[in-house]
Amino acid sequence: MGTRIQADAFDLGAEANAFAAAHPGAGAVVTFTGLVRDLASGDLQAMEIEHYPGMTEKAVEAYRAEAVARFDLAGAWVIHRYGPLKPHEPIMMVATAARHRADAFAAAEYLMDWLKSRAPFWKKEITARDSAWVEARAADEDALARWQGAD
Amino acid sequence: MIDLLYFAWVRERIGLPKEQVESSAATVAELVAELKTREPRYEAAFADLSALRVALDQELSDFDAPLEGVREVAFFPPMTGG
To answer: What domains are defined for chain A?
Structure first.
């Protein structure tokens, strides 16, 4: 239930409401949603997201469970899509619930940092002219460092 | 037999998503060295190991890792999820 890897679109509002309703003891719910960003040139036709079936589910669930334990969450959900997506469609979301907002915010950032650089997804940007794999950013790798060695 | 899986541009350069190989390589690095001698497309895919990541039986690992008991080896570029 907490981890969903799917091709289908999802409804942000409905998911956020269902998540909040599932955690009645929480005083804070944070959600983050990643959308397909257009290129600077404005001519993105589609984004193709490839993943590693089997490993994806295990890795995402492991990071989700780690976030719940580390930040003493009431719960966390991760939804991540794969397949062809159109500009501005939701790619993924995380939702975290905690007694107080600091843990909910921190857990959402923690989950995003790990999902970005360690969950086996690869994005390809497709235009009318060509297509290119999105390159990992050094800043995303650096973002992981702040969670390591801090325990 | 070991299952080899390739993702993203590694898959495109090698030209297939999955294959089975017979190998006596002791480590991932030795396996890569064997593959590179097969055909130019493997040489192209594995030219720069610093640009690649490896998973052994669906767990992230590294090129020095031993292959004993491993059934599935996956090669791919750094992930870009989220």
So the answer is: 3-145 (3.90.1170.40)
Vertex A46, ends A35 and A112: CA angle to 5°? 30
- Does residue B8 surpass a pLDDT of 60? yes
Q: How far is A134 from chain B (nearest CA, A)?
A: 7
> pLDDT tens digits for A46-90?
999 999 999 999 999 999 999 999 999 999 999 999 999 999 999
Which CATH number belongs to the domain containing residue B43 in this structure?
Answer: 3.10.20.30
A117 and B9 in contact by Cβ < 8 A?
A: no
DSSP class of residue B50 equals G
Of B5, B59, B82, the CB nearest to A92: B82
What is the 8-class DSSP label of residue B39?
A: -
What's residue A5's pLDDT?
A: 98
pLDDT at A151 over 80: no
Inter-chain CB proximity B81 and A119 less than 8 Å: yes
